[in-house]
Specification:
276 residues, alpha/beta, seven-stranded parallel β-sheet, 10 helices, 12 strands, 20% strand
Length: 276
């Protein structure tokens, strides 16, 4: 059984300690999202998410947790002996991060280098494109469904929220670290690149010429990408103008649509159950 060197454990005594700045005011998402990306940082929240991030090859800068959770991450601590381990009582940690830390541990992680879009397109056949998803919970749920149902990769438009923001990663159950994703730089112009790689383009949107999802039949070897739009306005007209067809999920009892997270799971199951 692995043990932990007690000299590595640093007790939180001063919330103004600059070594804790990466954890300060995590609840203020509007202040954190852009600066964290610029600083090459993301915060992994919960023991399971920390473990999944590390198992995916990501490198922690430091750990933050309550003392009672120390034994849950001994293996991870010992893999990265240079990363400080900060512990504190529940009130200290809440004062620092801005909410009650009840999911075990946190780690400040280095962001890996972005993946190459062309390489991702070459090695995939089922792709989800998320256009301007604004809610981190929705994004995490979509990525969890994409990973579990067999989507090969996810593409994000420039305005889509960050998959590695702590809430998205937590809701995804850490699957965001296993599923390849790329943030597009030019939208919707980058759709031309998908076409050049042989992808059929679908968009889930209520349009006059939309076809039922269950009427979409894919040939073996056919590559396909599905666009899912913003929670409020759906898929933009510019993107709709570029796709091959729009699709809908047939509904009952005058319900016109589903939440984008629920709709994505149905779409992914249908597309990924087709022969590849």
């Amino acid at each position: 059984m692995e043990t932990l060197n007690p000299e590595r454990i640093l007790h939180v005594e001063d919330l103004q300690d600059s070594r804790l700045d990466e954890y300060l005011r995590l609840s203020e998402a509007h202040l954190r999202m852009r600066t964290d990306v610029e600083n090459g940082l993301y915060i992994a929240e919960s023991t399971k998410v920390v473990q999944r991030a590390i198992n995916a090859g990501h490198v922690p800068r430091s750990f933050l947790l309550a003392e009672k959770h120390l034994g849950q991450l001994t293996e991870e601590f010992n893999r990265f002996p240079q990363a400080p381990i900060f512990i504190g009582d529940d009130q200290q940690l809440e004062d620092l991060v801005g909410f009650h830390l009840h999911r075990g541990a946190m780690a400040a992680m280095n962001r890996p280098e972005p993946l190459d879009l062309d390489k991702v397109l070459e090695t995939s056949s089922r792709i989800a494109i998320l256009e301007d998803i604004a809610d981190h919970t929705n994004l995490g749920a979509i990525i969890r469904s994409a990973s579990g149902l067999g989507v090969d990769a996810v593409l994000l438009t420039p305005k889509c929220v960050d998959p590695w923001y702590r809430r998205s990663a937590r809701v995804s159950m850490g699957t965001v670290f296993d599923l390849p994703w790329v943030r597009l730089e030019s939208w919707p112009q980058d759709l031309d690149k998908l076409k050049s790689h042989g992808y059929a383009l679908l968009a889930m949107e209520l349009t006059e010429d939309a076809v039922a999802l269950n009427d979409v039949h894919l040939a073996a070897g056919q590559k396909v990408a599905m666009i899912l739009g913003n929670e409020g306005r759906g898929v933009t007209q510019e993107a709709l103008d570029a796709v091959d067809r729009t699709v809908i999920i047939p509904m009952h009892r005058d319900v016109d649509s589903l939440n984008v997270g629920a709709a994505s799971a149905i779409a992914f199951w249908h597309l990924c159950s087709a022969p590849r």
